[in-house]
């Protein structure tokens, strides 16, 4: 053993011959080590690609199962084809009018999704169709991730690019986390279960309470009530089907007829690693994600009329926003409502106070009574998640003593 080490380090008694042999062994070692590393990386990439393909297939089956219990060959083919659906964003070389272009594309996309679902699931009611639309959206995203990862793996094989292989490998943990969350999100949206992103509409429905809601448009509802001695108008997406609503457009219509004293938005927000899920925070501005069309419309109303913008956020992980609503998020609702109440109490200007529950209202109704059913589903999903976590811990538990 010592002789081998001496040869490898060039410290043998063989003189120049020993040094040459050690140099050759060193070169061979580097060459084979690199090849072994590349092979291991490619094996890992192939395994991940296969896993992503399985997840995409499961998401597709989840949507298919909701559309029809016994789908025929044509239905399966149509769903498979629709997973390739895409929306081309407008040209942004000239930024003037870009928001209207995005709004147009977004509306066309909604219409296309709704038309497709009405064709493949003609017997489903409006709420079930809304859920299937959202489930399709999640399945399409997962399908796209699968295709992109496969594209890079095939590109690495063709180009023999070691650096590209290492770059993709470094991204895989994040990609796999999002993919697994998308699968659970697709299942939740398709079945009409509340997800993390629905906490904004949940807060809005809680504040609405037993008061009557009005249909503002096909995707949005409003409620007018006296709340904390103030005239309040609550806006949220129409539930319990999976929708995000049109709060910006509804707000524009209200602003044309009535004076607004303040706009308060409540939404889920991505937390940083190290922050606790369910933490709340308050600030100014419009708390809203997405393409930015609705946010732009709200900001336009606020700037034109010089209306204060308050916001309340409930923090959660990026994956938790698209998965069934976790316990820490639902437990944060009372604190979020308290922050909304404080924002209302700080308002001394005359006019209506607008509260917008931002997010996907899948599985969340429009008032307190409908939330009773939502709570049952949320509690059942929480128990399911806890059981899965316990099973994982048992699976990976290593006994210290035999």
Describe this structure as you would to a colleague.
The chain folds into two domains: 50-191, no CATH class; 196-387, 3-Layer(aba) Sandwich (Rossmann fold), CATH 3.40.50. The protein is of the alpha/beta class and 402 residues long. The radius of gyration is 27 Å and the shape is elongated. A hairpin with a 2-residue loop joins strand 1 (214-217) and strand 2. Helix 2 (16-67) packs antiparallel against helix 5 (126-159) and helix 8 runs parallel beside helix 9 (293-305). The longest helix has 52 residues, at 16-67. The protein contains 13 helices and seven strands. Helices cover 60% and strands 12% of the residues.
Note the main sheet: 7 strands, mixed
Extended strand count: 7
The number of helical elements comes to 13
Helix content: 55-70%
Class of the largest domain, according to the CATH hierarchy?
Answer: Alpha Beta
Detail the poorly predicted runs.
none
Structural class: alpha/beta
The outline comes out as: elongated
**On the 0-100 scale, what is the average pLDDT?**
90
Q: What is the count of structural domains?
A: 2
Rg on CA atoms, Å: 27 Å
How far apart are the termini?
A: 35 Å
Strand content: 5-15%
CATH-derived topology of the largest domain: Rossmann fold
List keywords for this structure.
12% strand, seven-stranded mixed sheet, 402 residues, 60% helix, single chain, Rossmann fold, alpha/beta
Question: Could you write a compact summary of the structure shown?
Answer:
This protein has helices at residues 2-9, 16-67, 73-82, 98-120, 126-159, 162-191, 199-208, 247-257, 293-305, 318-322, 327-330, 333-345, 368-396, and strands spanning 214-217, 220-227, 230-237, 260-270, 280-284, 309-316, 352-357. With 402 residues, it is α/β, with parallel strands linked by helices. The mean pLDDT is 90.
């Amino acid at each position: 053993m010592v002789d081998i080490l001496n040869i490898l380090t060039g410290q043998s008694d063989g003189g120049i011959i020993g040094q040459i042999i050690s140099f050759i062994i060193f070169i061979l070692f580097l060459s084979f080590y690199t090849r072994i590393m590349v092979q291991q990386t490619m094996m890992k990439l192939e395994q991940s690609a296969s896993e992503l393909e399985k997840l995409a297939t499961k998401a597709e089956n989840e949507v298919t199962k909701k559309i029809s219990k016994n789908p025929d060959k044509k239905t399966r083919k149509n769903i498979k084809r629709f997973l390739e659906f895409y929306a081309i964003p407008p040209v942004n070389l000239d930024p003037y009018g870009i928001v209207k272009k995005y709004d147009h594309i977004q509306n066309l996309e909604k219409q296309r999704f709704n038309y497709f679902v009405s064709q493949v699931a003609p017997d489903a009611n409006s709420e079930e169709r809304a859920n299937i639309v959202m489930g399709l959206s999640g399945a399409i995203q997962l399908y796209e991730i699968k295709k992109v990862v496969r594209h890079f793996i095939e590109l690495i094989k063709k180009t023999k690019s070691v650096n590209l292989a290492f770059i993709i490998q470094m991204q895989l943990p994040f990609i796999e986390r999002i993919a697994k969350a998308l699968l659970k999100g697709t299942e939740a949206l398709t079945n009409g279960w509340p997800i993390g992103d629905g906490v904004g509409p949940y807060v809005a429905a809680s504040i609405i309470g037993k008061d009557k809601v009005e249909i503002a448009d096909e995707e949005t509802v409003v409620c007018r009530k006296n709340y904390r001695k103030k005239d309040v108008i609550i806006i949220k997406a129409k539930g319990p089907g999976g929708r995000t609503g049109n709060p910006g457009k509804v707000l524009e219509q209200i602003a044309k007829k009535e004076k607004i004293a303040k706009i308060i938005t409540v939404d889920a927000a991505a937390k940083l690693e190290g922050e606790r899920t369910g933490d709340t925070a308050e600030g100014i501005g419009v708390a809203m994600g997405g393409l930015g069309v609705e946010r732009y419309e709200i900001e336009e109303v606020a700037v034109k009329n010089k209306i204060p913008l308050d916001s309340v956020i409930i923090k959660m992980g990026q994956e938790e926003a698209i998965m069934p609503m976790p316990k820490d998020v639902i437990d944060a609702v009372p604190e979020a409502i308290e922050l909304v109440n404080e924002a209302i109490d700080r308002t001394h200007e005359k006019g209506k106070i607008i509260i917008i529950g931002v997010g996907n209202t899948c599985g969340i109704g429009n008032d307190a009574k409908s939330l009773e059913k939502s709570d049952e589903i949320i509690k059942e999903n929480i128990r399911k998640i806890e059981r899965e976590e316990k099973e994982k811990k048992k699976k990976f538990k290593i006994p210290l003593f035999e």
